[in-house]
Amino acid sequence: MATGQVYWENFPPPTGGRVTVPNAYYAENAANRMLVPYGKDRIAVSDIADYVEYDWTIDDFQINQGESDDLVRIFPWQQSQVICFKRHSIFRVTGVTGDLSGAQLAKLPGSLGLVGRRAVVDIGGDIYFMSQSGVFRIQPGGPRHSGARRCADL
């Protein structure tokens, strides 16, 4: 056996990042794409008009800014926005249309979250959801109105 010999092996050419969308209990349709939650806080976004495959290199998002809570529900809302409910936080993703490189993630103020996947509804453009602290409403509007407000006791 000779010492100091180096063996080189060529890597195969890249084939792209297209893979099958992960299995999930549910998915949401937004901007002619399927948004599929998987793992603890990740979302696979399918190609336009193709619910079977996605490009994991550019259409895979993590909804996290240092929190450790699980993603509970993806909720499409108003044109190119998606609200991502976690157990103890809520995120808004804007720019969910066409090329997703312009999508932006913003955390809504507070520590509210969603108690269960079916505990949210859109009524007349407002989102009503149940948190551990009660029922809250998210209204459309500018940055001043982007937080959740507690509903009156029912």
Commentary on this structure:
This protein has 154 residues and is an all-beta fold. The chain has a domain at 18-112. Helices cover 0% and strands 40% of the residues. It is built from no helices and 14 strands. It has strands at 18-20, 28-30, 33-38, 42-45, 53-55, 60-62, 71-77, 81-86, 90-94, 104-107, 120-123, 126-131, 134-138, 148-150. 23% of the residues are buried.
Features:
four-stranded antiparallel β-sheet, 154 residues, elongated, 40% strand, mainly beta
Short description:
By secondary structure, this protein is mostly beta strands. The protein has no helices and 14 strands.
Question: Which helices and strands, and how do they pair?
Answer:
Layout: E1 18-20, E2 28-30, E3 33-38, E4 42-45, E5 53-55, E6 60-62, E7 71-77, E8 81-86, E9 90-94, E10 104-107, E11 120-123, E12 126-131, E13 134-138, E14 148-150
Antiparallel strand pairs: 1-5, 2-3, 3-4, 4-6, 7-8, 8-9, 9-10, 11-12, 12-13, 13-14
Head-to-tail CA distance between termini: 82 Å
Q: Give the neighbour order of strands across the main sheet.
A: 2-3-4-6
Number of helical segments with 4 or more residues: 0
Can you write the helix and strand succession as a string? EEEEEEEEEEEEEE
State the share of residues found in helices, binned by percent. under 10%
The value of Rg in angstroms is 20 Å
Low-confidence stretches: 142-146
* Mean pLDDT reading: 84
By helix and strand content, what is the structural category?
Answer: mainly beta
β content, as a range? 35-45%
Q: How many extended strands?
A: 14
Q: How would you describe the shape?
A: elongated
Major sheet size, sense and barrel closure: 4 strands, antiparallel
